[in-house]
Amino acid sequence: MLLCLTASQKLSAQWQVTTGPSQPNIVSVATSGTNTFAAAGTAVSFTANNGTNWSLVSNGLVGNIRSLVTKGADVFAGASGGAVFQSSNNGTNWTNTSTGLPANDILSLAVSGSDIYAGTFGVYKSTNNGLQWTHLSLTWNANVNSIAVSGSTILAATTSSGIYKSPDNGANWNTINTGLPTVVNAVIIVGSTYLAGTNAGLYISTNSGSSWSITSVTAAIGSFTAVGNNIFAGGSSGDGVFLSTNSGTSWTAINTGLSNMTVYSLATNSTYVFAGTTGYVFRRLLSELIQLTVTTSSNPANAGTTSGSGSFSSGTSVSVSATPNNGFTFNNWTENGNIVSANSTYTFTIAANRNLVAEFLPTTSIQEQFTDFVSIYPNPSIGKFVVSVNKLCSLKIYNSIGQLALTKENANGLTEINLNEKGIYLLVIQEKNSNKIFNKQIVIQ
User: How far is CA 197 from the centre of its chain?
Assistant: First the structure.
């Protein structure tokens, strides 16, 4: 029994071929939750169970499908002849949404926030879900194989001119080709790192594209996908899939079980990485390949404690907890400044690295504490007052319901403060380098 179990575990720790699609050359794969779409030839196929069953969903599509991308509940398909099609019912019906696009093949699609980008003979953008497209690359035109967007930065990988970069949402462009071949098949941005797939190998830039150097991967690369700092690269000339777990610094081939080694496209969901090959989509569990990290911290630092940090397999359930210290109460969990949970114990399925901050507020029952190195005048005031400190401090002011109304970092000497709304406020002064906290009630009349 033990031998059988061991053999079964070894067998499962590899790529597994799914049941379809039956069309050759899966040129694009896209995922949305547990839904996966695959494009080949003139058809798009759909699976809702990670490839156990596939069905054709091509009603309304015209031409050869070259690219796929998902945006929430919508899926978009880029086709030959300048056509983009949109479906909001998992491909059951498709609508042509190509107004403003040229009559050139839509080689690539990308989504960033509410915007959609199309790579064709130049770069086009839609801000209204594909209803209207605007030409961004007004100073240049080349066939665009791949688009990567991060914040206001856009990278366009072309078939003849290397990579064009716009730092300002497409208003201005310049080439970033030092050390890079002129034919670029795919591009991706991971953090501050740029990666480019070419027929001569995989290139990396760690200086915003000012220069490029080849990595250890010298095989032709035609596709990328990423989960956090973990990057998958698809070998387009029969070299399978490569994985980097350190933002592209080093790479390992991960081809056990991958019988079709020519990889045209890659995609991930919270559980699997998918590879589009000749005739079939293969899948592999992310938990076999990568570990994701969760870090937790408290704000203010001495207001409470957190637990739950660590490394986890992708797709597993993770719980983090926050416990306030005396004088504070838990408010919420935030990530990158955005609230992600109002519960002190936050449980989620991990699909990327997480950096979570437990936000605490001082309780309204705190007894005022003060020392002679701080003075406030006038108090009460009509909205304008001065805080005088003779040590380096941070100042935070909370309203009567515990909301943060104002923050001043590195206060020293006189700090003038204005509050617009009448009420009773709590001024929290934290002395730098000692973590001592002092509290004072402020009245705005």
Answer: 20
